[in-house]
Amino acid sequence: MSYTPVLPFGGYAGWSLLNRTMGRQMAAFTASADIQRNETYFREKIGSIRTAEDLVSDRRLLSVALGAFGLEGDINNKHFILKVLNEGTLDSKSLANTLSDKSYLKLSEAFGFGDFSVPRTQLSDFADEILQKYESRQFEAAVGAADDSLRLALSARRELPEIAAKQSTQRAGWYAVIGSRPMSSFLQTALGLPSEVAALNVDQQVEIYQKKAFEVFGTSDLAVISGAESFEKLNRIYFARAQISEISLQSPGAVALALLQS
Predict the structure, then answer these.
(1) What is the 3-state secondary structure (H, E, C) of 66-94?
(2) How confident is the model over 12-70, as pLDDT tens digits?
(3) Alpha-carbon gap, residue 158 to 182, rounded angstroms
(4) Nearest partner of 233 among 162, 156, 172, judged by Cα
(5) Which of 123, 132, 144, 244 has a C-alpha 20 to 30 A away from that of 186?
(6) In angstroms, rounded to a whole number, what is the distance separating the alpha carbons of residues 189 and 206?
(7) What is the spatial distance between Cα 90 and Cα 237, in angstroms, rounded to a whole number?
(8) For residues 80 and 47, what is the distance between their CA atoms, to the nearest angstrom?
């Protein structure tokens, strides 16, 4: 049986406890039998994979590959994943580039089947690279099984700095946030934006996100917002708003009490 993270309570208190025990919990999780079996198999077999067809035809390898990018739900969408991998990322019209969820782009970039004559599966450190992502994502998924708010916070701490570092402009960073379902959900809650904002065109969304971020942090620069001090503030606001949202159907007095406690 896989290790289940110890999460006696949620909210910001649960986040604080998870952070204090992260090292021990992560070590126990990665040492669990299921994770170890999957990692051993991946290390043994991935070097023999030279085409996207090879990868997709091996369900165990594919489950680890997809799990490393939070795409495990696509395990049965083999033709779709094959197209994502084979078309690569160099052509702006490739499937991975046109999808709004950029997790597929990251998957295709990581394996390189459509971009290089020799795929990245042949690199000596490739297994380590993918398995590090796999462990992180699967731990987040295990946390999310108990508390999805904590999972989103973990995802944000990992993904926001990556987005900020990779994008050439601040605006491009916000486009990447909107293209990530976990990040857009996290920041919608943290910035107090209604879910209906997602129905607007992407340029309008960027303007709204940047304006709200500036109101809260005095900047719309994701590199600053994802820094340790600002991210801690962002997390506090996120959990407070998430708690208020959960009790919004209760009495006005309960909402007022939650505001005071936060």
Answers:
(1) HHCCCCHHHCCCHHHHHHHHHHCCCCCCC
(2) 999 999 999 999 999 999 999 999 999 999 999 999 999 999 999 999 999 999 999 99
(3) 11
(4) 156
(5) 132
(6) 15
(7) 39
(8) 23
> Hey, what amino acid is at 88?
G
Give the DSSP letter of residue 99. Answer: S
Three-state DSSP class for 1? coil
Instruction: Please check the confidence at residue 179 and state whether its pLDDT lies above 90.
Output: no
- Map residue 5 onto helix, strand or coil: coil
Question: Distance between CA 79 and CA 250 in Å, rounded?
Answer: 46
- Quick check: 179 and 102 in contact, CB under 8 A? yes
- Reference 5, options 110, 141, 109; nearest CA is 141
Residue 124: partners with Cβ closer than 8 Å, 6 or more residues away: none
Quick check: helix, strand or coil at residue 31? coil
Q: What is the DSSP letter of 58?
A: -
Give dist(CA 99, CA 180) in Å, integer.
Answer: 11
Mean pLDDT score, 157-167:
92
Sign of the torsion formed by the C-alpha atoms of 34, 9, 244 and 160: negative
Render pLDDT for 190-241 as a digit per residue (tens, 0 to 9).
999 998 999 999 999 999 999 999 999 999 999 999 998 899 999 999 999 9
Which of 142, 160, 135, 165 lies closest to 238 in space, CA to CA?
Answer: 160
Burial 3-22 (b: 16+ CB within 10 A, else e): bebebeebbbebbebbeeee
Instruction: Report the predicted TM-score, pTM, of the whole model to 2 decimal places.
Output: 0.87
Reference 137, options 118, 162, 116, 117; nearest CA is 162
Is residue 94 left, alpha or beta, with left meaning phi > 0 and alpha meaning psi from -120 to 50?
Answer: beta
Residue 76: both structure tokens together:
């049965």
